[in-house]
Amino acid sequence: MKYLFGFILLTLMCCNACGQIKEKETMKYNELTPTEKQVIIDKGTEYPYSGELYKNTANGTYVCKQCNAPLYRSSDKFDSGCGWPSFDDAIEGAVISIPDADGIRTEIVCANCGGHLGHVFLNEGFTAKQTRHCVNSISMNFVPDGTPLKPTIKMNQKLKKAYFASGCFWGTEYYFMKLNGVTNTAVGYMGGHIENPTYEQVCTKKSGHLETVEVTYDPQKISYEDLVKFFFETHNFSQEDGQGPDIGPQYKSVIFYTDETEKKLAEKYIHILKEKGYQVATTLRPAEHFWKAEDYHQQYYQHKGTTPYCHIYKPIF
Ligand SMILES: [Zn+2]
Predict the structure, then answer these.
(1) At what angle are helices 224-233 and 260-275 packed, to 10 degrees?
(2) Which active-site residues does the annotation give?
(3) Distance, CA 83 to ligand 1 centroid (Å)?
(4) Cβ contact 288:191 at 8 Å
(5) Counting beta carbons within 10 angstroms of the beta carbon of residue 24, is it exposed (0 to 12), middle (13 to 18) or buried (19 or more)?
(6) Cα-to-centroid distance, 112 and ligand 1 (Å)
(7) Distance CA 200, CA 227 (A)
(8) Which strands, in side-by-side order, build the sheet including 182-190?
(9) Which domains are present in the chain?
(10) In 120-259, which ranges are continuous DSSP H helix?
């Protein structure tokens, strides 16, 4: 039923090199030139062997050009001969890896501002860590040891997370990731009784987990209430035994609330739906640990370029 396609699983090994950097709250990142924007914002690639930092061997820290966040230490830099600065490790928590839109490579971005850095490759034999962060020189600034680092520019975002289960998580995520105000989505498992379950374990219907989508959103742009309405408008919440052709406890309709306010809002809309004459099979449960699913399940339809078989959007409210 579900077609799997592989991504290289990435393990980011990290070092701890930037202890006492102060963080500053402001609303503006460093201004970028058009050439810098092409790489950092539009995810382009600079010409190989062209970057200022390609051959740099000085001791110091490589920081994000857009937000000043420290990304790499010079001690992790090596010459791979590929034409771009290469590192076999990043500063802990500084770099996030996501499946590239090309469906094959793994993109790396600054964890603070989301600026594009390059790609990460594994098991090429360059160093013992078997990892090559291939980074555009233009995405970074170099700060030599002894020169103080500038504060990391933090945007004033207070993002929140919401958890919805409405059948096959590929379909649920497909809709939520398109919503304005949703900054990130991930698919995973919630509500079961074993730790770190695999997809196969959840498929046995014995682990107790539901296929769940984690929706990260900016409450200044979209409300939890809007997410709840959208949840009901994108699946058949009357179905008791699963969703569409996907039958089983892991496909049931559940809102995992993280506090009483969310619970009350979810109850409010269940009430509204019942008043409108709908049968509502959706249950409300307190959120538990969200176990992120295997990489090949993330943003599945976007990578595959197809649309869900199990969910449609149907306006109600
Ligand atoms: Zn950044």
Answers:
(1) 40
(2) 134, 168
(3) 22
(4) yes
(5) exposed
(6) 5
(7) 29
(8) 283-286, 253-257, 160-166, 210-217, 182-190, 291-292
(9) 14-154 (2.170.150.20), 160-304 (3.30.1060.10)
(10) 169-176, 199-203, 224-233
Instruction: Give the length of the chain.
Output: 317
List, in sequence order, every beta strand (DSSP E) within 70-209.
70-73, 77-78, 86-87, 90-91, 95-99, 106-110, 116-122, 131-135, 140-144, 152-154, 160-166, 182-190
- Confidence tier at 13 by pLDDT (50, 70, 90): very low
Express the helix, strand and coil content of the chain in percent, nearest 5 each: 20, 30, 50
- Between 4-8, 27-31, 58-62, 236-240, the lowest mean confidence (pLDDT) is in 4-8
CA 236 – ligand 1 centroid, Å = 40
How far is the CA of 241 from the CAs of 127, 253, 269, 271, 316, in angstroms?
51, 9, 21, 21, 22
What percent of the chain shows pLDDT beyond 90?
75
pTM for the model stands at: 0.55
Tell me the backbone φ, ψ of residue 123, rounded to 5 degrees: 55, 45
Ligand 1 centre and the CA of 71: distance in Å?
A: 8
User: How far, in Å, is the centroid of ligand 1 from the Cα of 66?
Assistant: 5
* DSSP tally for the chain: helices H, then strands E: 6, 21
Please state, as a whole number, how many other Cβ atoms lie within 10 Å of the Cβ of residue 315: 7
